[in-house]
């Protein structure tokens, strides 16, 4: 069957449905939810709880959480609330709960991402590891047959080569942890040839050689590749690129945050894609949702974090 035929038979967002279905037989994980003080974030945590994915601990100003629940008819019976005065205190306390073993996952509520990730990254009280923290969008694009991982479009603004090495490895580990196999990783730039005037092409070449030397493991890398010949086999053929990755990439590594953010937003608003968000490289997966996320995306973000956490605990992938 041709690739075109496969795409035409896909149901919209079938890929997210598979992720959620894969999490159904796993034990719900206790999740510290930082500052769920608006309808969207509170409802998202409760819906994930009802779906059997998480057992939430709501961390924030108790009165605000109760008022939001009352205003939108959300039921909080049996849900633990940890009362703190404001969003920064909520971020710090949620991280503390995870650090002490009281929760297996961390979830962003209605606070700014910088507040939560700042608490995660603190040297003495955070959740740092030896790996650079990075973000992955797990994209469900209805017109594309494969799930696309885009990294990093939310955390690292202008990563250097060492940071990019961790960004790539984090994404590969996520892909493998979800039981998806060995990913094809495209290191993106504006062109597919090395040009000393375009630094991202030099980084791409270096990252591929790092993979050859075992400094990056678990994935097939190629780059630099432009977006078209990274995901479209015909574009790769026309350009004469002979590669196992070109045309079939599953992980797209962008040069910087601006490029990644624009790419992800283009897919969301022009191709009706959903973008589940997860932060990697910390002691536990961090569920990084947006106020604009729909229910399907929020559940998919929880499913990705849940599948990865169970995989890490068992040291083997959970098939999605």
Overview of this protein structure:
By secondary structure, the chain is an alpha/beta fold. The protein has 2 domains: 156 residues, Rossmann fold (3-Layer(aba) Sandwich), CATH 3.40.50.10950; 144 residues, Isopropylmalate Dehydrogenase (3-Layer(aba) Sandwich), CATH 3.40.718. The protein has an 11-stranded mixed sheet, sandwiched between helices. The longest helix has 20 residues. The radius of gyration is 20 Å and the shape is globular.
Rg, Cα atoms, Å: 20 Å
Give the overall average pLDDT. Answer: 91
Rounded to the nearest angstrom, the distance between the terminal CA atoms is 22 Å
Number of DSSP-assigned strands? 11
Count of individual helical segments:
12
The CATH topology of the largest domain: Rossmann fold
Task: Sum this structure up briefly.
The chain is an alpha/beta fold. It folds into two domains: 12-128 and 282-320, Rossmann fold; 132-275, Isopropylmalate Dehydrogenase (3-Layer(aba) Sandwich), CATH 3.40.718.
């Amino acid at each position: 069957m041709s690739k075109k035929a496969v795409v035409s038979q896909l149901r919209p967002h079938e890929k997210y449905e598979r992720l959620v279905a894969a999490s159904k037989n796993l034990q719900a994980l206790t999740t510290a939810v930082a500052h769920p003080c608006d309808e969207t974030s509170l409802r998202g945590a409760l819906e994930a709880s009802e779906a059997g994915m998480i057992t939430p601990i709501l961390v924030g100003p108790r009165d605000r959480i109760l008022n939001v629940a009352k205003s939108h008819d959300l039921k909080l019976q049996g849900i633990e609330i940890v009362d703190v005065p404001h969003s920064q205190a909520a971020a710090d306390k949620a991280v503390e709960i995870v650090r002490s073993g009281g929760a297996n996952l961390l979830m962003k509520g209605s606070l700014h991402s910088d507040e939560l990730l700042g608490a995660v990254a603190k040297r003495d009280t955070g959740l740092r590891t030896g790996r650079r923290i990075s973000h992955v969008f797990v994209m469900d694009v209805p017109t594309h047959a494969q799930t696309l991982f885009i990294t990093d479009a939310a955390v690292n603004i202008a990563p250097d080569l060492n940071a990019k090495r961790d960004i790539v490895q984090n994404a590969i580990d996520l892909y493998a942890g979800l039981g998806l196999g060995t990913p094809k990783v495209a290191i993106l730039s504006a062109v597919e040839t090395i040009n000393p005037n375009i630094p991202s092409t030099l980084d791409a070449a270096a990252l591929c050689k790092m993979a050859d030397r075992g400094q990056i493991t678990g994935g097939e890398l190629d780059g630099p590749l432009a977006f078209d010949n990274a995901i479209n086999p015909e574009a790769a053929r026309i350009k004469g690129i002979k590669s196992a990755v070109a045309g079939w990439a599953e992980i797209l590594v962008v040069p910087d945050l601006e490029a990644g953010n624009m790419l992800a937003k283009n897919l969301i608003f022009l191709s009706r894609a959903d973008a589940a968000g997860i932060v990697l490289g910390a002691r536990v997966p961090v569920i990084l949702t947006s106020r604009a996320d729909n229910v399907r995306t929020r559940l998919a973000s929880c499913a990705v974090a849940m599948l990865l956490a169970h995989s890490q605990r068992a040291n083997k992938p959970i098939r999605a």
